[in-house]
Each structure stands twice: as structure tokens, then as C-alpha cells.
Amino acid sequence: MSYSTETSNPSDIWATTTDLTTLRQKLLDLFCQLAYQEGDFVLSSGQRSSYYINGKQVTLHPQGALAIARLILNILPADTQAIAGLTLGADPIVSSVSVVSVYENRPIPALIIRKEAKGHGTMAYIEGPNLSPSAKVVVLEDVVTTGQSALKAFERLQAAGYTVDKVISLIDRQQGGAELYKSAGLEFEALFSIKDLQTHYQQK
């Protein structure tokens, strides 16, 4: 299903609802409509899969981005001082969460972590505001399979002197990521499991 560019009626703008249960359900609808596909796919991990989730179809969707930000802010630890993620999948997530955090009277800066060091200037791996030493940072991810992307972000942040003990993902494919994070001493939480998506997709 493609995204309609027609101007929405105010009644169609569901992402502003104050009911987080309804918000979560509408976001799940959006993932099933725009991001979830069945077929034969090769994932970034090299594994073959009978389904694929293109998270950017939702993270770059106006209502999807707002819903994601509000739901993530609701589960972020109270002492979170920044959010971060590995480019490219996490870029729209950390950006939307940071912007919406201001409207929630809880401004949280965002960091974007490069896969390779910047080739000029500061040669940095991490882009964004300079934080105080040992600042508490939560790693955000769109879809977790093996967990390697968020783990790389965690390692870069640790090397920069930040404190990281939690990863939050939009979707957990339940293929080893949670176990990897646990072995690294990281708490892990996802908005949805792959079972949530597939059950809802079949019902639709």
C-alpha cells in the first residue's frame, strides 16, 4: 500500500491522540500496511527470509514518525540524557524523538553514529551535540535481527566515554538480537515483536 499525498482531514490525524493504546494500535496498522512484505528476501545480515520489514516506510511517514517518537519517549528511562543510533535506519527515529521531546517538555539531544569514521575534518564516528562525560545514552534501532547494528552503536558510544545500558527497537525479529544484547549487559525493549506484526497482518 502506498502513502497518499492528499491533504488529510483533521479527523484522520490519529498520531496526536492522547490515548497511547490507540496510538500503538494505529502504528501497528501502519507497519502492516506500508512496511511488512512477504516473499523471498536477503537481509543485511546475509540471512534469507520469507518476509521483509522496510522500517523507513514508517519512520519517514509523518504520522508514523510522531507516533514512534511519542511511544519511545513513554518508555525512555527518566535519566536518559541523549538518544543515538547507527546510520541509516536509526536516523529518522533519533531525529523525531529528539524534536518531539521538546513538546513533551523533556528535551533530549540526538546523536547519529557513522558506520565509518568521517573522512575529513574531525574524523568523527559520532555526529551531534557534545555531551558531558559519562552521559547516559539510549540506543535506538528500527528493526533488530541479529542485533549487530545497535551493538556497533553501543561500542562507538562506549569508546567515546558515554554510558549505555539500554537498546530500544521498533521491531524485534526474534532472531538472536535480544540474546546478544543480554550477553553485552544491555537491557532490550521493542515496541513490537515480529509475532505482533504477523498476527495483525494476517487479521487484516
UniProtKB/TrEMBL annotation:
EC number: 2.4.2.10
Keyword Phosphoprotein appears in the UniProt entry: no
Enzyme class: transferase
Cofactor(s), by name: Mg(2+)
Residues in coiled coil: none
Keyword Manganese on entry: no
Catalysis: reaction(s): orotidine 5'-phosphate + diphosphate = orotate + 5-phospho-alpha-D-ribose 1-diphosphate
Binding site for 5-phospho-alpha-D-ribose 1-diphosphate: 114-115, 118, 120, 141-149
Superkingdom assignment: Bacteria
HAMAP family linked to this entry: PyrE
Protein name: Orotate phosphoribosyltransferase
Organism in which the protein naturally occurs: Okeanomitos corallinicola TIOX110
